[in-house]
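Write out the 3D structure for:
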Amino acid sequence: MFREMRRKRQLLPTKESVAILEKMTNGTLALHGDDGYPYAVPVSYVYADGKIYFHSATEGHKVDAILQNDKVSFCVVERDEIKPAEFTTYFRSVIAFGKARVLEDEDEKLSALRLLADKYSHGEAGMEAEIAKGFNHLLMVEITVEHLTGKESIELVRG
């Protein structure tokens, strides 16, 4: 169903790909947008147990696209180091493919929101009050990852 990576030597082990998803703080969500145009949007996210979670406004292009077609991809770049003298870039990135859904169950939504808030606020005092304040004014979206690949530049492989 999903294509194999053409340059297999550059493929990161799944464990490293997961570590990148756990570490990074933003990625680009790609959706099937209006009139057949792709729609890619940066989002802050949290990765846990094979799922990616992010929050959204209750309406808009992103939400409409997810409701129309739940198949998405999500890209995270860990390293992007330009090497002018070598005419290349040293990179490490991850792409996840999966299905997105808006969390309707309040317990699921709250659990996902707490994961997200904890990642960015590191348990700061006032986190629960902030969650309570915004809870009814946002959506939480879950992407169930079906396929995951990580890749690094060939120069890093050789190193």
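The chain has a mean pLDDT of 92.
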